[in-house]
Amino acid sequence: MSFLYDIHTHDFPEEPGTAVVQLTPTAYCTYPGHAYSVSLHPWDIEDDWRVQMAKVAVIAMQPHVLAIGEAGLDKKKSPVPMEVQMEVFREHVKLSEMLHKPLIVHCVKAVDELLAIRKEMGVKHPWVLHGYRGGPEQAEQLRKQGIYVSLGLDYNTDTLLDMPFKYLLLESDTYGDVNVLYKLVSEDMEADEQSVRSLVAKNIVAFLKSHDDASFE
Ligand SMILES: [Zn+2]
């Protein structure tokens, strides 16, 4: 656990256990040694989403599944009506709270709805909004409400430099090389790459444990 450098990816890392690998509801078997998250992505919601969610719930109970997600709301790329996306997202929130596993959030142009659901469901545990490309002001506003952000290759440099160290989280997602990301981030921070790696790995573990000891708040 202590060497998790990548909080969200859709690819298997060369070295098992260094990244949280995203699973879909059809991931019946998983490779040992890896860390996982599981969800029904808002792009993949189908009419029988309750069946899809039942599969997600079964996979989510496995011990090597450390987080729920990426789950969320997408007004741009998902053809699914927002009410349905919100209902499916609420199911992920329930799963996260019930299993004490933190939630990785996908959110495109639906921050108000996201905050409304968080409030309505009385969630206290931190969430992480992945692939954040916005500015430092919004990141701070989200942070104040318990939603942290993780940065991928297209991060906003001001956001990176403004962010308190203890909240820095990095991800390769679908297209990124995490080693390239660490190089860029270290250069921008004018910091030694190994120190940035240690810092982020520590932060990722703190986030993943946040349901147990509130260490990320
Ligand atoms: Zn992703």
Give a quick summary of the entry.
With 217 residues, the chain is of the alpha/beta class. Helix content is 40%, strand content 16%. The protein has a seven-stranded parallel beta sheet with strand order 1-2-3-4-5-6-7.
Write the layout of secondary structure elements.
Layout: E1 6-9, E2 19-23, E3 35-38, H1 49-60, E4 65-74, H2 82-99, E5 103-108, H3 111-120, E6 127-129, H4 136-144, E7 147-149, H5 157-162, H6 178-189, H7 193-208, H8 210-213
The protein binds zinc ion.
Zinc ion binds at residues 8, 10, 22, 70, 173-174.
CATH homolog superfamily: Metal-dependent hydrolases
Which spans of ≥5 residues are poorly predicted at pLDDT below 50?
A: none
Radius of gyration: 16 Å
Bound molecules: zinc ion
CATH fold-level assignment: TIM Barrel
What would the principal axes of the Cα set say about the shape? Answer: globular
Number of strands: 7
Separation of termini?
19 Å
- Could you tell me the mean pLDDT? 94
Question: Into how many domains do the coordinates divide?
Answer: 1
Helix fraction? Answer: 40-55%
Characterize the largest beta sheet: strand count, sense, and whether it forms a barrel.
Answer: 7 strands, parallel
